[in-house]
Amino acid sequence: MKRVGIVTVYCKNYNYGGQLGAYALQKTIAKLGFHCEQITFKWQSEYYLQACESAKSAEHFRIFSESIPHSEHLYTVSDIAECVDDYDIFVCGSDPIWGLPWVISDDILPCMALSFVPASKTKIAYAPSMGGAEIGPDRKNILAPHVNSLDFVSVREKSAIPFVKTMKNGEVTHVLDPVMLLDESEWDDISAIPPEKAYILTYDLRDTGVQKYAEALSKKYGYEIISLATAGAATFGPKEFVGYIKHAKYFITSAFHGAVFAILYKVPFLVFPVSDHSQDPKSMDLRLIALLDTFGLSSCYVYDTANIPNIDDVTFHHIDESETSAFRHHSLQFLKVALEA
Fold first, then answer.
1. What is the DSSP pairing of strand 229-230 with strand 233-234?
2. Taking a C-beta distance cutoff of 8 angstroms, is the pair 110, 78 a contact?
3. How buried is 61 (Cβ within 10 angstroms: 0-12 exposed, 13-18 middle, 19+ buried)?
4. Per-residue pLDDT reduced to its tens digit, 319-339
5. What is the pTM of this model?
6. Which helix (H) or strand (E) holds 234?
7. E strands in 98-232
8. CA 101: distance to chain centroid?
9. Could you tell me which residues come within 8 angstroms of residue 326 by beta carbon, excluding any fewer than 6 positions away?
């Protein structure tokens, strides 16, 4: 059985999307018949690390993180090449591993495109993101030679394909976020059951208007508000994130993976923009807009906070499940072909 090592923002990343994406990609590759684990790689700054570890939800995240198969050794930029002999195949992805300079520093960026792996090993990018559709020229210059050295390249945002093609000679494939490679029953297996009451759920990355809208909705229907995060800091663990979204009456968010799970569980939701310039090629909101476009849910995006869509108008009847299944199959096929090459 061939061994696969994944490099992503897994290690001590107490962020819902980061942990659940790491869980889903490892599980998916293992289901395809490979021995697969996360490479425990210190990718964040000391400041970010301390912020994660001091969060009140840290213990929930630590326990969940430990449940994901991972290397025993904690690697850094200086010694990550020492893991090369432990794996036959390397995968980088998902999440914004090719963007967000305030999170992924210039010295870490090449590792997120497997710069430390020799050409004799298979190197795959599965659904990496740049946050937006592009990155700045300085970051591109750092990343480009390593992206071009990858054997198989896919991206999470379709809008990012033209830009990534300027770094990669060859095909660049659009695939699903790894979270969507698992079905509802597989997420149900790990989800925590919320209190038995009607509630409106919020998850806001910053003060975008989510809470204000939820309060108006609460006043209208009399439902309690439960918040998954306050000022971007998680208040529950990953298992609660999944279960609380599933059972919510309404879900208001500004987060990508919040929208992903709302779509999976068909929970009426709205997405508030996290940046002031959502159409900027480097905006983090482009990944959300692209996701909603893929599923015909553009009306769930709040383009103008003075004219918020009616959440009661949100339906999922128009989503063609055969098309969703085909996209999932296409994404799995990309992985399967790349892993078996």
1. antiparallel
2. no
3. buried
4. 888 888 999 999 999 999 999
5. 0.95
6. strand 233-234
7. 122-125, 152-155, 172-174, 199-203, 224-227, 229-230
8. 17
9. none
Q: What is the model's pLDDT at position 279? A: 62
Strand (E) or helix (H) holding 25: helix 16-31
- φ/ψ of 229, rounded to 5, equals -155, 145
- Mean pLDDT on 9-33: 96
Q: How many whole angstroms separate alpha carbon 58 and alpha carbon 40?
A: 17
CA-wise closest residue to 126 among 190, 71, 181: 181
- Bridge partners for 89 per DSSP: 4, 122
Q: How far apart, in Å, are the Cα atoms of 96 and each of 8, 18, 129, 139, 299?
A: 9, 9, 4, 13, 24
Contact (Cβ atoms closer than 8 angstroms) between residue 272 and residue 208: yes
Beta bridge partners of 173: 154
Report the SS3 class of residue 37.
strand
**Which helix (H) or strand (E) segment is 97 a member of?**
none
- Residue range 188-202, pLDDT digits in tens: 999 999 999 999 999
Say how far apart CA 123 and CA 126 lie, in whole Å.
10
Q: Which of 188, 184, 185, 212 is nearest to 200 (CA)?
A: 212
User: Which residues touch 87 (CB under 8 Å, ≥6 apart)?
Assistant: 3, 4, 5, 39, 121
For residue 59, what are its two tokens? 């213990």
User: Given this model, what pLDDT does residue 232 score?
Assistant: 63
Burial degree of 277 (CB within 10 A; 0-12, 13-18, 19+): exposed
pLDDT (tens digit per residue) in 229-250: 876 678 899 999 999 999 999 9
* Residue type, position 111, single letter: C
The answer to whether the beta carbons of residues 247 and 191 sit under 8 Å apart is no
